[in-house]
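> example.struct
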């Protein structure tokens, strides 16, 4: 299982909107539903709504957070390339 970096464009009203910085990227070694659940746990702190869902398109490398049928955030998912040591 490859390590993945999730980079948020924004989450909710305060995480990357109105001149505020986007939430920090997170790194996970998960896939599928486990990855979506992990993103939801992280995103929860930025959302006013307690009812939301994470939509993840692993093949396209992106996802969206929906709250009340509204776009509550977007993110990209990319594999982390291991650094090669030049010794």
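> example.seq
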């Amino acid at each position: 299982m490859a390590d993945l970096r999730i980079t948020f464009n924004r989450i909710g009203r305060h995480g990357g909107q109105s001149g505020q910085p986007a939430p920090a990227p997170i790194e996970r070694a998960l896939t599928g539903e486990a990855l979506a659940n992990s993103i939801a746990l992280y995103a929860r702190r930025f959302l006013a709504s307690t009812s939301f869902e994470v939509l993840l398109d692993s093949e396209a490398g992106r996802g969206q957070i929906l709250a009340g049928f509204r776009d509550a955030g977007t993110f990209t998912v990319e594999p982390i390339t291991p650094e090669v040591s030049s010794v």
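> remarks
Strands lie at 4-11, 26-28, 53-57, 62-67, 70-79.
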